[in-house]
Amino acid sequence: MVHLVQRDPKVARDIRDSLVACPAPSADAATRPGASADPYPVDRRSGRLTGKGATDLVVNVSTCADSVGIGSYVYRRVDGGYVNVFADEQPPVFAEIDDGTLKVTHQVYEPQDTVSNPSGEDVTTYRWNGTRFEEVSFSHRDYETDDGTGSGSHG
């Protein structure tokens, strides 16, 4: 999977160049549930997004240090190989398959927010139209406020 992203000319050069194995985790971190044996900061999901019989791949690339998503890509199976049909390289980003649609989430930060505590998120949903992904919905959700009330979802 790493080679697919590294060799993809549609992936920004800085992302391709920064895609290296992360340092080995500590012994106790490696034994935690959900810990990955893959040293590369790449998350891969598969499913049907483009309407073909073949399985599509959703690939998310993140940083090693803080796991911030720096690029999300969709690869469509074509003639025995994979072709990049979608890219979002506006961090922080994470893409996933949701009931046949592509859901792309961007965490939103206010100036006072830390990386671990964003203020909210923007979620854009896309559907394949036969030749490319089209936006079908957008929503913004503010996370809980300091007073504990939370502001819910609006869009």
Secondary structure blueprint with pairings:
Elements: H1 2-6, H2 13-18, H3 27-30, E1 42-47, E2 56-62, E3 69-78, E4 81-88, E5 93-98, E6 101-108, E7 120-128, E8 133-142, E9 153-154
Structural class: mainly beta
Strand order of the largest sheet: 5-6-7-8-9
Number of beta-strand segments:
9
Give the biggest beta sheet: 5 strands, antiparallel
Pick out the low-confidence regions.
28-35, 146-155
Distance between the termini: 35 Å
User: What percent strand?
Assistant: 35-45%
Shape: globular
Helix content: under 10%
Oligomeric status of the shown chains?
A: single chain
Give the count of helical stretches.
3
In short:
This protein is mainly beta.
